[in-house]
Amino acid sequence: MNKILISGGAGFIGANLVKLLLKWEPEWKIVVVDALTYAGDKKRLEEISDNPRFSFYQVDITQKEKMREIWEREKPQGVIHLAAESHVDRSIKDPSPFILTNVLGTEVLLELSLEFGVSRFLHVSTDEVYGELKDKEGKFTEEHPLAPSSPYSASKAGGELLVKAYERTFNLPVVIVRPSNNYGPWQYPEKLIPVVIWQALHRQPVPVYGRGENWREWLYVEDCAQGIYTAFLKGREGEIYNLGSGEERQNLDTVKTILSLLGEKEDLIQFVPDRPG
Q1: 10 Å Cβ neighbour count for 171?
Q2: Helix, strand and coil percent figures for the chain, each rounded to 5
């Protein structure tokens, strides 16, 4: 397997994965497909743009015929599927793009993978499919029932179920990973950590939902990329793997830590009504 198609490769996690694969696998060729929506940024890939083992297509994965053309031209042997709409708040305001990309887009990639006979399909899901972690003692395992609490997490759960269905019905060789909350350089400033940093640096109120008591497990983006790479190489077909760090914090503690590191006062914190779900 020496040519890998990566959907969403200009995204936050995807770009880190692309650069890692080009560095660690000198025989591999990487084909990136990305629609370059608001959260996708080709600048993340500038340092590898001249690499002869790298090619890029700006295509929406829901466009099946355009995706088929890429498949016929590139003939990838493996797929790592990261392309997704991924912001909970946006999904509450308008669920449609999430269903289109996260469910229908996944179906397009599965169909083409089956048609062209890829040797491995790795689907990047999210730990959000489990629902809310209520306390610090709780730990999600891969056997935990799915309980999505937003249109975003429901769409990711739907995509996952499609992947499993293609494995069971058509014997497509799949692996699924469920990463926890990622953070790191180049993250689009709509997720908690970059929002807090941006607001604090500009001395603006830092919004915290409810009383900030929800728990999140944090995973550095390069560690996540390494986890995806390992699962792609060594994961057992049909298996699901959680990717995490074990570093769990309440949101309010995370916000206070960032403010302290930036030398800002906690009076910037502004509690706002919790979002639905």
Answers
A1: 11
A2: 45, 20, 40
DSSP 219: E
Indicate whether 147 belongs to any domain: yes
Structure tokens at 268: 């910037």
- The Cα–Cα gap between 23 and 155 comes to 32
The CATH code of the domain that includes 75 is 3.40.50.720
Do 269 and 208 touch, CB atoms closer than 8 A? yes
pLDDT tens for each residue of the chain, 277 residues long: 799 999 999 999 999 999 999 999 999 999 999 999 999 999 999 999 999 999 999 999 999 999 999 999 999 999 999 999 988 889 999 999 999 999 999 999 999 999 999 999 999 999 999 987 665 556 889 999 999 999 999 999 999 999 999 999 999 999 999 999 999 999 999 899 999 999 999 999 999 999 999 889 999 999 999 999 999 999 999 999 999 998 889 999 999 999 999 999 999 999 999 877 5
Q: Per residue, what are the HEC states of 129-167?
A: HHCCCCCCCCCCCCCCCCCCCCHHHHHHHHHHHHHHHHH
Tell me if 159 is assigned to some domain: yes
User: Cβ distance 113 to 39 under 8 Å?
Assistant: no
* 162: in domain: yes
Task: Look at the chain and report how many structural domains it folds into.
Answer: 1
Residue 175 included in any domain: yes
- For residue 139 the two structure tokens come to 């730990």
- The parent domain of residue 150 ranges over 3-183+218-246
Q: Which residues are catalytic?
A: 127-128, 152
